[in-house]
Specification:
- By secondary structure, this protein is an all-alpha fold.
- Helices cover about 75% and strands about 0% of the residues.
- It has helices spanning about 1-20, 25-45, 55-70, 80-85, 95-115, 125-150, 155-160, 170-195.
- Helix 2 packs antiparallel against helix 3, helix 3 (about 55-70) packs antiparallel against helix 5 and helix 5 (about 95-115) crosses helix 6 (about 125-150).
- The longest helix is centred in the C-terminal third of the chain and has 29 residues, at about 170-195.
Amino acid sequence: MKSIYLMLLIFFASLIWSIINPKEVFTCFLEIIPAIIGVLILAFTFKKFRFTNFTYFLILIHCIILFIGGHYTYAEVPLFDTIRDVFHQSRNNYDKVGHFAQGFIPAIIIRELFIRKKVISNKSFFNFIIVCICLAISAAYEWIEWGVSLATAEQGDSFLGTQGDIWDTQSDMLFASIGAITALILFSNVQDKQLQKL
């Protein structure tokens, strides 16, 4: 339980930092609300279903990525401005980190749920279905970005964050897919060891 409390402390410290003088208040709200909703769901379901500490740790990392994007906006994270300038990139690519995580972390969450709840009996399709679900989540998020941008006009542009890239939506979903596949390749064994301790 100590590790859970430590992660909660880091979560709330990061959340408070992100909402102190953000670049754009509306964008900050839109970016951090998924993390807040996610943690509330985890809190309400904690007694019925407790994830491994490994999964909780990855969820925390994803929340911090969201908080940084909310504080600065995804297009203006300072470190990635520097990376853009040093490597002569055409845009700030912090959003690609966010979309990679949008595939990576859900893949681990879904995998743990599938294993522990015995959702899929045929292991041949196991990883394929996980990647497909992660891609569906990514596509749904792109719809939300699009809807917010249409509904709020200029105010939603920072949330949409295309930075003039006409292929931004497609590349966001690609990065989510790569994130999901990477998680399954690199961390399935790590997660299995965690699950054996339960």
